[in-house]
Amino acid sequence: MKLLRTLTLTLTLTLILTSLLSACQRDAAQHASEDGGPEQYVIEDGGVGLTREELQYLVKLWSPDMIDAAIKDPGDRIELLNMALASKKLAALATTIPASDDPEAYWKQVFTVRSIQARYAVNHFVDAIEVPDLTALAAERYQTEKDKFALVPEERYSSHILLQCEPGACDRDARRIEARKILDQLEAGADFRELAGKYSEDPGSKDKGGQFDRWLKMGDPNIAPHYLGGLFEIAKVGDYSGIVDTRYGLHIIRLDDLRPAHHKPYEEVKEAIIASLRSEYVKLAAKQYDAGFRLTDKAVIDNAAVDEILSPYKAEPAAPADAELAAPVDADRAASADAETSAPVDSAAKESN
């Protein structure tokens, strides 16, 4: 019985909404079987009962410990059934309590149940939708929207030399002079790996000859945009960028390798396209189904009553505000301060993890 005391609250919370919905939909005494006779209950008390179907579903909601207790201990079984039936009795009672007793609680439970019922109706419709064969349309979409479904964007592999200079922490102009000297050496034929080991201040890559051990795509959200911009402006493998500024400092980037953009073959993306089309089909069908329950031309609206209900929420006219204080905030300008938040260096990538 100790087990049941620890599980009572869980079971009650699980049952109450399900039972309330059931009670709102139909009265327990009016159940009917397929042959028109009264429905047979597995457990019944005072005209309220649980049918076999109800109990089968309810048991699915029980935890393994609860099911084990119901199997092995007759006392625990009685207590579980007792709680289940008590919950249904309370739910039935709830439908008889007038709204005037507690309007807030009353309408909250009414609209909660109504929302569940509406969602159930829509889900029932969606589950019954018969989606036609979309294979031919998928092949057509592959040709007309190949970039959407099959494009593999260009990827680039790089190495870099970083001179650290976080905002406000150093003289960036002085560091730029240092970076320029390093770039001059590279353009004169110096070995990149040697200079990276000598000058780079990125602890994650300097000992690997500056190698950024990751393939990068344009728009990668984890890499500083300016780093990506500098990398993807390099014309050919083996060439260098100019001096690239990020919040972490100044970079000299070398393009080590690239994988050209290409499209995956149809068979590789076929199922993904069909899934996308199926989703489109179902969403459109659900939207059309929902439209059937919108107001019709025969709808009657008592606007006077609606105005009366809304009147307490009408805002008072705002007092004139000082022009400067009332000026709108430039959201783009405010957001730009935090635009570059990701480091393009190995060490920063590790920190983000």
* Helix and strand element order: HEEHHHHHHEEHHEHEEEHHHH
| Terminal-residue CA separation | 47 Å
Largest sheet: 4 strands, antiparallel
CATH 2nd-level architecture of the domain at 154-260: Roll
Q: Trace the largest sheet across and list its strands.
A: 5-4-7-6
Average pLDDT figure: 84
Task: Tell me how many strands there are.
Answer: 8
List the total number of helices. 14
CATH topology of the domain at 154-260: Chitinase A, domain 3
Shape: elongated
**Backbone CA Rg:** 34 Å
Name of the CATH first level of the domain at 154-260: Alpha Beta
Instruction: Report the uncertain regions.
Output: 1-38, 323-353
Report the β-strand fraction as a percent range. 5-15%
Proportion in helices? 40-55%
Structural class: alpha+beta
Chart the SSEs and their pairings.
Layout lengths: L1 H24 L15 E5 L2 E4 H10 L2 H9 L1 H21 L8 H25 L7 H10 L1 H5 E2 L2 E10 L7 H16 L4 H8 L11 E7 L7 H8 L7 E7 L2 E11 L2 E2 L2 H26 L11 H8 L20 H6 L9 H7 L1
Antiparallel strand pairs: 1-2, 3-8, 4-5, 4-7, 6-7
Helix pairs in contact: 1-4, 3-4, 6-11
